[in-house]
């Protein structure tokens, strides 16, 4: 099984009732249920966590990265502000994929900047709860190919550092 930690940042515990016009009505439990079904099909062992605290999120990232698990992360508002989070991803050597429910690039200018994007393998945003599923599939594929690279992936140019 491929270990992947799904990390949710601040205010995502309010999904379902939080600004539904932007984030929809799916709750974190709904997202978790969907991810667990997908994970089974992908051969992924999931750990799922949410916190409203920056330091705790940094701790979760370190724990995942140092244990060799991949990270699917919606850092929420800390995406745009947290140097500590970026340093945790880089410092723990984690393979991370950044996800957002909303299309952050179609929103306020302060959401256009992601401090963690440069240390993530890729980003999925704008597909609502489906962003998580797409991110999980991409991350599982990336981690699987690291264990046994396919010739077609090696020549595609995507993630050529892998
Ligand atoms: C979010 C986008 C962030 O800008 C915002 O602060 C969030 C949620 C998203 O999933 O669309 O809390 O990460």
Automatic annotation (TrEMBL):
It comes from the Bacteria. Substrate binds at residues 74, 80, 87, 101-102, 111. PROSITE patterns: DEHYDROQUINASE_II. GO terms for molecular function: 3-dehydroquinate dehydratase activity. It catalyses: 3-dehydroquinate = 3-dehydroshikimate + H2O. The record marks 18 as: Transition state stabilizer. The keyword Ubl conjugation does not apply. Keywords: Amino-acid biosynthesis, Aromatic amino acid biosynthesis, Lyase. Pathway: Metabolic intermediate biosynthesis; chorismate biosynthesis; chorismate from D-erythrose 4-phosphate and phosphoenolpyruvate: step 3/7. Transmembrane segments: none annotated. Its EC number is 4.2.1.10. The keyword Membrane does not apply. It is an enzyme of class 4 (lyase). HAMAP family: AroQ (MF_00169). Catalyzes a trans-dehydration via an enolate intermediate. This is 3-dehydroquinate dehydratase. It comes from Methylobacterium marchantiae.
């Amino acid at each position: 099984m491929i270990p992947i930690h799904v990390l949710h940042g601040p205010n995502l515990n309010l999904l379902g009732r939080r600004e539904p016009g932007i984030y929809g009505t799916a709750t974190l439990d709904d997202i978790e249920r969907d991810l667990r079904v997908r994970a089974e099909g992908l051969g992924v062992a999931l750990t799922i966590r949410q916190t409203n605290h920056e330091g705790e999120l940094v701790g979760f990232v370190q724990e995942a990265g140092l244990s060799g698990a991949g990270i699917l992360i919606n850092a929420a508002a800390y995406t745009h502000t947290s140097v500590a989070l970026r340093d945790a991803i880089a410092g723990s050597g984690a393979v991370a994929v950044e996800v957002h429910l909303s299309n952050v690039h179609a929103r306020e200018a302060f959401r256009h900047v992601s401090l963690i994007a440069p240390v993530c393998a890729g980003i999925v945003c704008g597909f609502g709860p489906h962003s998580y599923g797409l991110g999980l599939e991409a991350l599982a594929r990336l981690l699987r190919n690291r264990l046994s690279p396919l010739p077609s992936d090696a020549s595609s140019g995507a993630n050529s550092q892998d």
